[in-house]
Write a structure and sequence with these properties.
By secondary structure, the protein is α+β, with helices and mostly antiparallel strands. Helices cover about 30% and strands about 20% of the residues. Helix 3 (about 85-95) links the parallel strand 5 and strand 6 (about 100-105).
Length: about 180
C-alpha cells in the first residue's frame, strides 16, 4: 500500500544508530556522516517505488558524496514476512548494483521507528550539524520511472543543504510502499 511521509520537521536532530552493513561492518551515524550533510535513505529490495528510481538514487548518491554529503541506506522491512528484504538479499542487491554507500539492516525496526520512517523510499536529509533540512522525494517518478529530464528534487535540495546548511522551504513528500512492520508480539 502506498504511503506518504509527513512534511519536513526543520531542525529535528538525527537519531544515532548502530547497525550491520551488508559488508559485515557495524556502523554508527558518525561513521556515515558527511562534512556538508548526511542523507539517510530508508529503502528495501522489492518495493516498485524504490526499483523505479534505484539507478537515479545511485547517481544522486554519488553526486552528493562528491559534495561532501554522507549517504547511507537502511532496510527496516520485516524480512520474515518479506524474504526479498533479507540480509542476504540486501547484500546481493548492494553488490549487483555497486552501491557507493553502506546498506544497513535494521532487523529490530528500532531505527525506522526512531526516524519516523513511513515508506520506501523515505529520504531524510540533514545538514552538517545533523539537523533535518529535507524530507522530500527523489523526483516525480512513482511506481514507474519518470522521464529522464525530471527535476532532481533530492539532489538539488541536498546540494543546497551542502552549500548553505538550509533546505528548501517547499518540498514535495516522497511516496512509496509502506514500511513492512513486524506484528507486535
Amino acid at each position: 500500500m502506498a504511503a506518504t511521509p509527513p512534511v519536513c520537521d526543520f531542525g529535528w536532530t538525527a537519531p544515532d544508530f548502530e547497525l550491520t552493513a551488508t559488508d559485515g561492518r557495524r556502523l554508527r551515524l558518525s561513521d556515515v556522516r558527511g562534512e556538508n550533510g548526511t542523507l539517510v535513505m530508508f529503502i528495501c529490495n522489492h518495493c516498485p517505488y524504490v526499483l523505479a528510481v534505484l539507478d537515479r538514487m545511485l547517481r544522486d548518491a554519488r553526486d552528493l558524496m562528491d559534495l561532501g554529503v554522507g549517504v547511507v541506506a537502511i532496510c527496516s522491512n520485516d524480512a520474515d514476512a518479506y524474504p526479498a528484504d533479507s540480509f542476504d538479499k540486501m547484500a546481493e542487491l548492494a553488490a549487483a548494483q555497486d552501491f557507493p554507500f553502506a546498506y544497513l539492516h535494521d532487523a529490530t525496526q528500532e531505527v525506522a521507528r526512531a526516524y519516523g520512517a513511513v515508506c520506501t523510499p523515505d529520504f531524510f536529509g540533514f545538514n552538517g550539524d545533523l539537523a533535518l533540512q529535507y524530507r522530500g522525494r527523489l523526483d516525480a517518478s512513482r511506481k514507474e520511472t519518470g522521464p529522464a529530464d525530471l527535476r532532481r528534487d533530492l539532489y538539488l535540495a541536498m546540494k543546497q543543504v551542502a552549500e548553505t546548511g538550509q533546505g528548501p522551504a517547499d518540498q514535495i513528500p516522497s511516496m512509496g510502499c509502506s514500511i513492512k512492520w513486524k506484528d507486535a508480539a
